[in-house]
Amino acid sequence: MYKISTGSSIMHCPALLESRSRLKAQMETSVVSAAPDYFTRTRVSRNVNMEKLQNNYLFPEISSRELEHMKKYPHAKVISLGIGDTTEPLPEIVALSMANYARCLSTPEGYKGYGLEQGNKELRKAIAETLYKDLQIKDTEVFISDGSQSEISRLQLLLGSKVTIAVQDPSFPAYIDSGVIMGQAGEFDHASGRYQKIEYMKCGPENNFFPDLHETPRTDIIFFCSPNNPTGQAASREQLEQLVEFAQENGSIIVYDSAYAAFVSDESPRSIYEIPGARKVAIEVSSFSKIAGFTGVRLGWTVVPDELLYSDGFPVLHDFNRIICTCFNGASNVAQAGGLACLSTEGLAAVHSAVDHYKENARILVDSFTSLGLRVYGGVNAPYVWVHFPGSKSWDVFSEILEKTHVTTVPGSGFGPGGEEFIRVTAFGRRDNILEASRRMKSLLS
Amino acid sequence: MHCIQHNPSTTSLSSSASSIHGQNKFSDIRTQSISVRGRDGGRSMIKCIATSSSEKTAYKTQVSRNENLAKLQAGYLFPEIARRRAAHLLKYPDAHVISLGIGDTTEPIPQVITTAMAERSRALSTVKGYSGYGAEQGEKPLRAAIASNFYADVGIEEDDIFVSDGAKSDISRLQVLFGSKVTMAVQDPSYPAYVDSSVIMGQTGQFQKDVEKYGKIEYMRCNPENGFFPDLSKVFRTDIIFFCSPNNPTGSAASREQLIKLVQFAKDNGSIIVYDSAYAMYVSENKPRSIFEIPGAKEVAIEVSSFSKYAGFTGVRLGWTVIPKELLYSDGFPVAKDFNRIVCTAFNGASNIAQAGGLACLSPEGIKAMQDVVGFYKENTQIIMDTFNSLGFKVYGGTNAPYVWVHFPGQSSWDVFNEILEKTHVVTTPGSGFGPGGEGFIRVSAFGNRNNVLEACSRFKQLYK
Questions:
Q1: Do B333 and A96 touch (CB under 8 A)?
Q2: Which residues of B touch A297 (CB under 8 A)?
Q3: d(CA A349, CA A439)
Q4: pLDDT of residue A344 exceeding 70
Q5: What's the mean pLDDT when you consider all of chain B?
Q6: Which of A6, A413, B135, B176 could form a disulfide with A19 if both were Cys (CB 3.0 to 4.6 A apart)?
Q7: Cβ neighbours of residue A278 under 8 Å, at least 6 residues apart?
Q8: Do A19 and B269 touch (CB under 8 A)?
């Protein structure tokens, strides 16, 4: 059994191992609860860090709520604007390149076994040259991953249990959860909704979604996501300069998540390395998921600059390389072929077209909520719309929206206590679904 | 730091074991090797050297290096082998270097499998066929196919299966699951990822140079004298026991009787076995292919496996881990539930295209194709075994695994490795890279195209006649 705290009440729900299938996929549930006493227990203690975790990871939880709802209303057309799952098909050029690569693996000339753990050299070069043009990132500083979520945990493994971390509040849950799992956090404090030992940097309308760094104590590591999931805010150049300066003064390392950089519409920086001095203080993690629809294909990258040094002068890159060689064996070569195709001229154009589609979705959603008199944030530089419901409990709003409009969103408090009173609506979806969802919300909320 | 192309005259490749296990402090080793694969599949080396002037004035953060990383003695074994190979290629640019070192598959993937991957790729560009995030535990049909093909008779079900991007990643995820406070035992010699991931997780003490072991790890010696099965009466209790069968590197496959003993040992001690069955399809004799063939194993064991060595998926990246529902922590909490949480948080599923390939692997046609590939490598293994046998060496393994474990009594395995490389241009793997129990042995892997394997063997005959 797991418990979801909504603040005012504790809801008990059966623990489910859920698939995160879409409507058209099969629904499967299997129950894993505390096993009956007739199984012999081992004498291995459960990892106390796992015990500290409060409940399921956020997104499987959203999935399971959605599935429950679908069972309750088998004829409802549930629209998922919850999990940020891409919906637009891959560009043909990308799909074809992967198909060809796969076929070549059946030929003596085209067969490839183990690739370099750091990733295919051509792909690393293409990322450095195309996505970090003029930023002096070397291909040897680019590590190809199977996506940010895996990489964030590998970075935590690198950094170890003794580092202190700061996160934005609200933030993508993987930073906190992976930190808890690695042993960087203390116990969860129910009153505040925070894990002890983690520094939560509040980001809200009152501070323009940028933390007040004067009030922020030093931590070793600062996780910073821009454009931001879930608030949709992109930090300005001035704000990032402040952040880099703050990191320099404190000797901290920024882990900068730029997964949504492709959605930037204005002059906001797309990479932390646009800020002078960032090479000495920042790691950047990114992904093909939201740029290219690779959420299932699994491909991303991490930049670790040569100049980034531990306090004893040891290069972080050297240890990260060791982690990659020991705990990983490279991203799938087929996925990497697809990544390379994305970065071709034709590929980039096709990929931008999908991003534009999602941005238009975001605009539609922003307009809809704004027309209802709601305070709406994000949606301009990111595929997330952050809607304020002052005085509310976000899980209650989530439940009401789901119950009454059959639209799944994500309650802001799932991203940290700073998300309370907010709902995240993703702009990933087929256009007709986005329009339909907007209509339904308008009926409910007007 | 600046990067220079490797210059052989400035390299000192020491052959002694101690230099390989030398201190990995930045102050001692000012070079960092990044190996780069060339078109011929060979790796060339780029060295990055920190100049002392930049080091003095270079900005440093105030973040302490993870002391667990500092405990590691050298690079991971296989990049080191690759580096040696690359250096050798630079030294002898016209030599036909043959790689029987890293266990890298060479035979193309059967068409039934790549066709499925190509079709899935194309489908992703259509509205109907597009899929985004998949279940972190893996696609349902693949989990079902793994359960029915490999575990039908032992009661392992679809939802006990977690699809991975390969055994190596899952070994580290299991270590993250177990945490830093567990104790672990490994066979000696063993696949280096178990020990190295344990060090990284903080489960171990410092490396002890005199015995070439990390503190707090229980090393279970496996050698010809004990039939490559540890004397469990001499093994201290640990929380976790890593056991690989058929074994990398020794090639030995445990018998049913031996595994019954192992399961009993784990039961008596309340331990969890992490059973690596990546080479199960290479079993020829009447030996178990899964730990779950042993009654009672479900309450003590996790099994990790991979498509790498069956389907040539070393680059495609696909494997699986079995965690039975019956496996419980001391407080009764199911291990699978926590692993599920790890998989949902620290991972996002194996590539959907790789999974489509995996499903094709498990079709009747795919199974037959994989058996043919395995059969091909087994023929290679036989050729290698025959060669060393004919030269009068004591040869182990090979029958149930794609590795031949050759004994060179009284010799340093790195010295033998170097001599073989220097004189025959064949890359092998020195046994001590797998632990002190590997000293005096060389691992020859049987992955290679037939001509290369035959050529390598004729060179061995020349060298050792």
A1: no
A2: 124, 351-353
A3: 31
A4: yes
A5: 90
A6: B135
A7: A240, A244, A254, A256, A272
A8: no
Task: Locate the chain B residue with the closest alpha carbon to A49.
Answer: B179
Which amino acid is located at A151 in the chain?
A: E
A20/B345 touch (CB, cutoff 8 Å), yes or no: no
pLDDT in tens, B372-412: 999 999 999 999 999 999 999 999 999 999 999 999 999 99
pLDDT over 90 at A2, yes or no: no
Strands (E) located in A184-342: 188-189, 194-195, 198-202, 221-225, 253-257, 282-287, 300-303
Q: Which residue has the higher pLDDT, B13 or B147?
A: B147
User: What is the value of ipTM here, to two decimals?
Assistant: 0.91
In this predicted structure, the answer to whether residue A27 has a pLDDT above a threshold of 60 is no
Instruction: Give the nearest chain B residue to A121 (CA atoms).
Output: B36
What's the average model confidence in pLDDT over A35-39? 60
Instruction: Give me chain A's average pLDDT, please.
Output: 92
Share of chain B above pLDDT 90, in %: 86
What does the DSSP 8-state code read for residue B164?
E
Q: What are phi and psi of A303, to 5 degrees?
A: -105, 125
Question: Residues B352-359: what's their mean pLDDT?
Answer: 98
Least Cα distance to B406 among B387, B425, B424, B423 occurs for B387
Measured distance CA(B380)–CA(A146) in Å, rounded: 33
3-state secondary structure at position B241: strand
- Of residues B416, B16, B169, B267, the one with CA closest to residue A154: B169
Residues of B in contact with A173 (CB under 8 A): 345
The Cα–Cα gap between A138 and B459 comes to 41
Break chain B down into helix, strand, coil percent, rounded to 5: 45, 15, 40
Which residues have CB under 8 Å from B438's CB, separation 6+?
Answer: B188, B189, B249, B413, B430, B431, B432
- Is the omega angle on the peptide bond into residue B246 within 30 degrees of 0, that is, cis? yes
**A46, A88, A107, A295: best mutation site toward chain B, by most B Cβ within 10 Å?**
A46
Residue A33 to residue A30: CA distance in whole angstroms: 10
Contact B182, B202 (CB under 8 A): no
φ, ψ (nearest 5 deg) of residue B102: -55, 135
Our CA-based measurement puts residue B289 at a distance from the nearest CA of chain A, in whole angstroms, of 23
**B410 Cα to chain A: minimum distance (Å):** 30
Q: How far is B58 from chain A (nearest CA, A)?
A: 8
What band does A55 get if pLDDT is binned at 50, 70 and 90?
Answer: confident
Lowest mean pLDDT across A3-17, B28-42, B98-112: A3-17
CA–CA separation, B260 and B241 (whole Å): 14
CA–CA gap between residue B442 and residue A308 (Å, rounded): 39
pLDDT digits (tens, 9 = 90+) for B219-251: 999 999 999 999 999 999 999 999 999 999 999
Q: What is the pLDDT of residue A445?
A: 85
Q: Strand A384-388: give its sheet, edge to edge.
A: A375-378, A384-388, A422-426, A410-411
CB contact under 8 Å between B76 and A326, yes or no, is yes
Which member of B63, B124, B181 has the closest CB to residue A310? Answer: B63
Residue A16 has pLDDT above 60, yes or no: no
Contact predicate A157/A168, CB 8 Å:
no
